[in-house]
Amino acid sequence: MRSILLIVFGFVCVSDALLGFGFEQTAAIKGRLMCNGRPARDVVVKMYDKDLLFDSKMGETKTDSDGYFSMVGKGREISTVDAKVNFYHNCENSMIRSVFECPRKFSIYLPTKYISHSSNPELVYDFHQMELAGRFPDESHDCLHR
Known about the structure:
Layout: H1 2-19, E1 23-35, E2 38-39, E3 44-49, E4 56-62, E5 68-77, E6 83-89, H2 95-99, E7 104-109, E8 115-116, E9 124-131, E10 140-141
Parallel strand pairs: 1-9
Antiparallel strand pairs: 1-2, 1-5, 1-8, 3-4, 3-6, 6-7, 7-10
């Protein structure tokens, strides 16, 4: 019985992501990224809806020459999306990893109050400024960052 429930739940999650079932939802984030006190430009920022089987991309952008970015992510899901934002950067990255395009990666999750059940976000998660030097919890290197 338990395995049947897991299969049904998995099907709902997959069909939700693949077939576009669910409600349109948005999340917005903005801020400035720095590397050792200087603007971190061209940092890739991607927003995903964290799901059980695989994550669905909601949006993508890069920081500008002053380290600023702003992004609105959009997704469809039956339940409230679990918005995860990934940052891919080379601040204090070793020369070998930089040459082979393996940026450092860390993620943050947006609090539920920043998820809007509409096509326009009601609130923007503004973290103002973040320093990329140093290490973040659960940080990794990601050569593919799909």
